[in-house]
Amino acid sequence: MxxxxxxxxxxxxxxxxxxxxxxxxxxxxAYLMGALTVAVNIPQLVSVWTVPDTGGxxxxxxxxxxxxxxxxxxYGILHREKPIIAINGMLIVVQFLIVVGxxxx
Length: 105
Hints:
The protein is an all-alpha fold.
């Protein structure tokens, strides 16, 4: 058993409580960053469905983004990671609508 001032300072400075606080902050921030990630896709979605010409929008890229989101959703489900599930579930909807919009034009 370690005792003394040095051990107390070392535990406080590098202890688990600081790491736990950081992890909690990052976990909560994941939802905000996920919402921002979905939000930055919305202008493309609106554009694809409202502007008649989708020539500058890459079907290959958006299909790739959609497939990647499907992978990450599956990964999140396997690991029971709620932020990954929520974010990629929303991304799949938005990206699917973008792909459909590109194809239908």
